[in-house]
Amino acid sequence: MKFMKLGSNPDTFQDDGNEVSIVESELVSDITVRIGTTKFYLHKFPLLSKCARFQKLIPTTGDENIEIHIHDIPGGAKAFEICAKFCYGMIVTLNAYNVIAARCAAEYLEMNETVDKGNLIYKIDVFLSSSIFRSWKDSIIVLGTTKAHLPWAEDLKLVSHCIDSVASKASIDVSKVEWSYTYNRKKLPTENGHDSPWNGVKQQQFVPKDWWVEDLTDLDIDAYKQVITAIKGKGMVPKDVIGEAIKAYTYKKLPSLSKVSMIHGDAKVRAMLVTITCLLPSEKGSVSCSFLLKLLKATNLLKCGEMCRKELMKRIARQLEEASVSDLLIPTVDGDTTVYDIDLILSIVEEFVRQDSKNAQKHNGGEVSDHVSASSASMITVAKIVDGYLAEVAKDPNIPVYKFFSLAETVSGNSRPVHDGLYRAIDIYLKEHPSLGKSDKKRLCALMDCKKLSPDACAHAVQNERLPLRIVVQVLYHEQTRASAAATIRADSIGIGSYESSRSGATTNTEDEWDGVMAVEDLSLSKTTKLDKCDTAGMDAEKNHTGNKGASGRAKGGATPKKVLGKVMSSKGQTGERSSSDSSDSAILLRQEHPKRTPARSTTKSAAA
Fold first, then answer.
1. SS3 state of residue 426
2. What is the C-alpha to C-alpha distance for residues 412 and 414, in angstroms, rounded to an integer?
3. What distance in Å separates the CA atoms of residue 106 and residue 121, rounded to the nearest whole number?
4. Segment (H or E) for 166
5. What spans are recorded as compositionally biased (Polar residues) (predicted)?
6. What confidence tens digit (pLDDT) does each residue in 186-221 have?
7. Sheet architecture: strand order including 66-70
8. 562-586 burial by CB neighbour count: b if 16+ within 10 A, else e?
């Protein structure tokens, strides 16, 4: 720390412990100066020789002892004592902690060059410019002390000089940083290399880009705001480094922000959160989405205002693909029966969809095609995050079905290449809400595309008694169609058999074997299940496949669906869960037990005979 000593005479100020300071001298004190509750027994001549203000307050005639009351001097009794000692020529030590108070008090007492050359104001200004403002840490300390001496420090431009000093040093090229700084943070990913020795001499230690971040966390929010604004204005520091600085400052001042338990604050904390939100760089990715969501959680619980809330939601929506499900679990405010604020997340997802659609329209048809691909990729990622969030909030028995449905349908089905996550969320919701009406169940399940369920999800769905029978039938149909297609591809790839063997294999199906294949046809033609109709020509083409293809198709999709459906129907019949519409689906099972002979099959059998 830099310091300056003034004067050469011994310090003869004596404090008796009762807020009384006396100057030991052969001369009797002829003036008493009261600063607050502290009395100083001094002499007129030293004060008059340095302070223009005392020249106005002390009468020029009369030798009697006078008493002067000063109640508004900046810095109080301690700052006045420094000025008084300077008037006596006593040794005074100035440093970063007391120099601002002394400078403001000297201005108050008018200790300028018109009274005496080399007066206190001049000496302090030289000390500030030549020493304090050239030091990184002293500049920060001095800036922190200015708050106690407002508005004097601002009027004297001491605050602006401090801010410019700190901001200029933070914006300097890291290769020119030669002063000490506090750094206990992890370096950025690109800064984890180690300096290698050259010609046996170790190179200069590597300085990280965010070397200045920790030292600024000691400032109060007002001074910090001014410094960050000045750093932004210089335009030399990357936005992600500024964002990292704001994040570090927030965690230093509000350590509970990163914990599960939420902070409890007053108007001061609310004002700090609003200021931090306003300081965030506008560029996407300058701060993490996780940090933004923590800020939103705090501002939501502390009710920091709608403007602050909307600004954070807009920023979060721009990089929602970076979020995690745990970060999205924001508790509701008082008065809501649900555990998590699903309306808040719905608004964020809607904003994300709007921004993504706007970006896609802006770049569609242009030369920039990579952005469209990135936008689609981010939409797919957000769909996975939303499905994971739905699975968590589905455990809350107080979540209304319309809120669950609204959030689920906000992300289009095309953004979900696989519907396993959505199926899991719906299944959890059905499990936690057993009294849900049949129409609501069907509405929820209609969000799923059975063709986009994985084999494992299909295996689970066909045995899931919570699902409507209509959905189970659809899953079985699409699973058998997928199995038949896979068998066809395998047979085509190995090229087994000839046209004659294929014809022979196709015409030797037994009546029982055809029952399994006809189950698919009956499922597709059933009006009650409202499934997609199978093309009769497609069935004829399937009969002309090789014997291996027919055998594989029967193995994958033959009697298994009929057995599973029988179990599901039996289970639903026993539990009394079948709806009126589900009963119409049972007609499929009857047709599977007594399949009709199609003309194409009869012709094939006679040809085989």
1. helix
2. 5
3. 6
4. helix 158-170
5. 600-609
6. 655 444 444 444 444 434 568 899 999 999 999 999
7. 13-15, 20-23, 38-42, 31-35, 66-70
8. bebbeebbeebeeeeebbebbebbb
Judge whether residue 491 has pLDDT over 50.
yes
How many residues appear in the chain? 609
Residue type, 18: N
| Distance from C-alpha of 12 to C-alpha of 90, rounded to nearest angstrom | 8
pLDDT score at 104:
97
pLDDT at residue 101, rounded to an integer: 97
Question: pLDDT digits over 144-188, tens only?
Answer: 999 999 999 999 999 999 999 999 999 999 999 988 898 886 655
CA-nearest of 9, 30, 35 to 88 is 9
> Do the beta carbons of residue 179 and residue 136 sit within 8 Å?
yes
Q: What is the DSSP string of 469-481?
A: HHHHHHHHHHHHH
Question: Tokens in use for 124?
Answer: 């302090």
Instruction: Look up tokens 């939501």; give the residue.
Output: 300
Separation CA 284–CA 295 (nearest Å): 16
Burial of 320 (0-12, 13-18, 19+ CB in 10 A): buried
Q: How far is CA 512 from CA 232, 391, 405, 483, 597, in A?
A: 79, 43, 44, 19, 12
Q: How far is Cα 82 from Cα 600, in angstroms, rounded to an integer?
A: 112
With a CB cutoff of 8 Å and minimum separation 6, the contacts of 25 are 12, 43
Residue partners of 202: CB distance under 8 A and separation at least 6: 195
**15 pairs with which residues across the strands?**
21
Q: How far apart are the first and last CA of the chain?
A: 108
Are the CB atoms for 279 and 308 separated by under 8 Å? no
- Phi-psi category of residue 424: left, alpha or beta, with phi > 0 → left and psi -120 to 50 → alpha: alpha
Prior bond of 151 cis (ω within 30°) = yes
Give exposure, 170-206, as e/b (b: 16+ Cβ within 10 Å): bbbeeeebeeebeeeeeeeeeeeeeeeeeeeeeeeee
Q: Report helix, strand and coil shares of the chain as percent, to nearest 5.
A: 60, 5, 35
The mean pLDDT value for 388-402 works out to 94
- CA distance linking residue 42 with residue 81, whole number of Å: 11
Q: Among candidates 466, 457, 470, which has minimal Cα distance to 422? A: 457
Q: What angle do CA 222, 223, 225 make, to 5 degrees?
A: 65
Taking 50 as the threshold, does the pLDDT of residue 461 lie above it? yes
Rounded CA-CA distance 591/600 in Å is: 18
- Write phi, then psi, for 571 (nearest 5 degrees): -65, -45
Alpha helices in 531-598 (DSSP H): 536-543, 547-557, 560-575, 580-585, 587-593
Of 534, 522, 517, 518, residue with least CA distance to 588: 522
**Chain centroid to CA 571:** 47
Q: What is the dihedral of CA 462, 464, 470, 474, to 10 degrees?
A: -30
Task: Tell me the β-bridge partners of 6.
Answer: 92
pLDDT at position 263, please? 54
Contacts of residue 121, Cβ cutoff 8 Å, sequence gap at least 6: 103, 106, 107, 111, 112, 113
% of residues, the chain, pLDDT over 70: 73
> What is the 8-class DSSP label of residue 288?
-
**Residue type, position 203, single letter:** Q
pLDDT at 514 over 60: no
DSSP tag of 82: H
Distance of CA 550 to the CA centre of its chain: 55
